[in-house]
Amino acid sequence: MSTATRPADPSPPTAPRAVDSQAKQMLLAFASLIALIVIFSVLKPDAFFTSDNLIGILQSTTVIGVLAIASTFIIITSGIDLSVGVLMTFCAVMAGVLMVNLGLPLWIGVPGAIAVGALCGMVSGLAITKLRVPPFIATLGMMMLLKGASLIITQTRPIYFNDVQGFDAISLGSVLGDVLPFFPIPNAVLIMFIVAVLSAVILNKTALGRYTFALGSNEEAVRLSGVNVDRWKVIIYAFSGGICGIAGILIASRLNSAQPALGQGYELDAIAAVVIGGTSLSGGVGTILGTIIGAFIMSVLINGLRIMSVAQEWQMVLTGLIIILAVYTDNLRRKKQ
């Protein structure tokens, strides 16, 4: 009588040295965030450390933070997704089509736009797994496809949500306004943290998370253990696409419109936040908490430089240098391991 064997259930790397290195990287990122806040507060105390500006930083972090969470899952698998920014825009456009052009209610339009994001992510995953297109090329092609589709669907004109009751409150409302009247935290910030908590639980406590880490650590070993690698990779890309759909809803709600030309460039900020937060570009290592810290570092840095009246081109230079430094630090950490 033969006994069927179940494929091995890979778990995230738990080597003490790797965990210790990852904790140090996260601590370094958090210390950098605190240092930036202190520096800008000292240099511009009347402009930076005010309730209005702090709320503005929180609000500006929401979209980058959610996109960075989506990118974290992909990068942990040692993949890359260059389409997250444009996919966010496409989901915002589809929300406009569903709720404005077709007149569907909010409770259908919002999940519908998120589902479109998951579908686009699934298509990227299928291109990578079935057509064997490298992730860089597959998602670059998806980025161009979705950018063109957004412009074609809207005829290059924004879609406004003025007649969709309650849509702007998704980002700009504040359910905590009565509790914290002196510091009304926008709903978009709460949504970002809810997405972060749920994603952290999924990444660390579910099969999807375990396979995400396993694919990034040693994909061939996972394949040889009998796991359907292609299926899990498609699921991960679809899950990431759904999170991009949430980002699309947040930015459309904040602007009260779907801007078809918006989105390109957001993927670079998202990837930068992920890397700064300690996720390795080589895969197998990463945390959602580190990603959120990285997103706040990007927002605080950009906000502080604007308050300091630093020209936008120099802001881009400094951001690029920070990305290079973060990748260099990641390389040093991997060599030590």
Which short descriptors sum up this protein?
disordered N terminus, 337 residues, mainly alpha, two-stranded antiparallel ribbon, 12 helices
Give your account of this protein's structure.
The protein has helices at 16-43, 51-76, 84-101, 106-129, 135-154, 169-172, 187-205, 207-224, 229-255, 266-276, 288-307, 312-336; strands spanning 159-160, 257-258. By secondary structure, the protein is an all-alpha fold. The protein has a two-stranded antiparallel ribbon with strand order 1-2. The longest helix has 28 residues, at 16-43. The chain is globular, with a radius of gyration of 20 Å.
Summarize the structure.
The chain has helices at 16-43, 51-76, 84-101, 106-129, 135-154, 169-172, 187-205, 207-224, 229-255, 266-276, 288-307, 312-336, and strands at residues 159-160, 257-258. It is mainly α.
In DSSP terms, counting alpha (H) and pi (I) runs of 4 or more, how many helices? 12
Biggest sheet statistics: 2 strands, antiparallel
Uncertain stretches: 1-8
- Estimate nothing, just give the exact number of structural domains: 1
CATH C-level category: Mainly Alpha
- Bin the helical content: over 70%
Number of strands: 2
- Output the structural class: mainly alpha
- Global mean pLDDT: 89
